[in-house]
DNA sequence: AATGAATGAGAATTCATTCAT
DNA sequence: TATGAATGAATTCTCATTCAT
């Protein structure tokens, strides 16, 4: 009664495996909004447009739905590293690609990420999956910057902090937009460029001190 | 069974208000970990060391506990602005102060922030409160940077993006530490300095281009 | 998962009736162990190695399976009486035959008997069927003993009590072995002989008193 | 709607611990008739005249009710042995006492015994408790008879079989009456005396053979 | 004739909340 | 003021059974 069906079953033909997908989509959507407990099987079934019991024909129990959704987070290291391919002369383009790629990845997984964020303390298996995306992103970028530092292209310094700043920016924007529904008065593309410029300046500058 | 009392009342006089505080503290702690629904009145009462019904002598219902907790988020604009007091020559010190002050504020409010994060979609009144802290922080810093740009101290540009990057960094670290229990291999103080340096370089550099 | 198929159909022709038997066998086995409710159609189908729905092609509903099983209890009076054929000089041999025959009959019907025992109060039609075996056994023996008493071969007395004792002994042993899985430290054959001896002594003795 | 309340709550005073007892009584009664699964918490609560949820304030879960009921079966060896106190001259009186005592014990525990009988295969802890009563009864009597045999009062022989016959008789009668609601055309007292006489004759007779 | 998908009725259990003391 | 007992509403899940293929 809150929301209409999630998908068009509209008939009775050819929705064989579709039911399972509808359930997953409904659960994902609801859990991302209401949390695991808030996404009751009744609400899931209503949103999916199926009978409540049908859920249990497709999944052993409610927890199994979550586990299935969690499989949607796969390791993204390789993909991120691809965006950083190139030598120092291309750093700026690489950073831009990286920003876009990372942000897009967050958006594509926004529901499962929200679920992880919400359920971090309730479902132990969630934590490691949850940390993988943001932390991997910091690591991959940090490693690349470190490499350039080692090659003398960048002044020695805080590659890790720089990577963290860069990644944080997009994660934060993502959270603001999709969790808090907050318009940051930012066009994403604009943010990618601005942040890239600031970071480029920040790490190629010459006024570093400490350590 | 899981956790001991949050603090025994160990006396006998004037516990009226103390009981209320114990309930609030227990609820805050549990909701921050388990969410609103996960923090059952039974668990709250056990952690608070009071009878379950006692909760309802102090609060109309469970929702009222949350509302009370939300009052704990007050506007922090004034305090943040104080940390940015000074002229351009002190910018670096200002940024460091700002970073420390902002991060400390997050930590001091970590439970209620987690609750807001978790319940953003369930309790409408949460959203505006929740957005206040991070967004205010961006705004305040952005305004100050803009001011310096207007005064010619900083090249025209992306004050808002810069502020966002700076603030994001600490919010992200805060989330990683307190939500995901992820050690970022960062000492906070080190991060404050590194991020400040990078930002200083980033915004005072001379290679800006973008529109 | 618990038990393998009750028997593969290993062929392809004429399994129609066989499927039905497999279902009956599985249901009998499960109901004897777990009771009517504990024998779910799913478990029955798994043990029978058929699809759950197939059950309902062969039986109107689950209750009909039980009814079919109950038909397996037929009157045994004739058979029991056959074991008691003979004159008084053969009493001991007759008793031995009777014991063996009765016990064997119990064992052959152990599953349906257990079902009756378990479901006595749930399925009204069960009770009369259930009582038929043990009570008939007492009656038939009692009649025979009475006959001998009337002929003067046995002292007047408690033919019915004697028959009850005799029959009880084997029913009790049967229950202990097949319901409680209790080894009574008895070989059945030994028990048949011992009980026969005791009964023979008991009813041919000369020290009777009671009214 | 099937049965009225089990006990007179009729007011609201002084039924503090009584509620628990009412639930236990209702559960015992229903489980003895319908089995564990057949005794739904709803039916129990209705028969007990309490709200369904109240059951779970008094018992962790349904299984805990059964466990509590099972505690009602305590070791009866001592009591049975008391009934067999005396020397050989009193054997007949002892047997009578024993029959009465054993039968009374069965009747007093009739509900829990029926539950055990029904659930023997479903609840593993039931089996050992269940076997204790009947087997102990056989053992105790068998030991006493053996003792008399060793003292030369009784001919060497099948004390165990004799004990089994005796005990079986009453257990069988008990089952017939309380499980199958079958009138055996027996007054219990008459059966005690008849069975005692037959056993006395049976074991003191002189026509034993084998071993 | 057999099966995979779907479902209504009902099961045990949890939870926030009220009542009486 | 605080508490133990009680409860209605809702939740996850099971089961027998039907439908369409």
Automatic annotation (TrEMBL), chains A, B, C, D:
InterPro entries: Homeodomain-like_sf (IPR009057), HTH-type_TetR-like_transc_reg (IPR050109), HTH_TetR (IPR001647), Tet_transcr_reg_TetR-rel_C_sf (IPR036271). Keywords: DNA-binding. Residues 40-59 bind DNA. The keyword DNA-binding applies. The keyword Lipoprotein does not apply. Residues 17-77 form the HTH tetR-type domain. It comes from the Bacteria. Pfam families: TetR_N. PANTHER family: HTH-TYPE TRANSCRIPTIONAL REGULATOR PKSA (PTHR30055:SF226), HTH-TYPE TRANSCRIPTIONAL REGULATOR RUTR (PTHR30055). This is TetR/AcrR family transcriptional regulator.
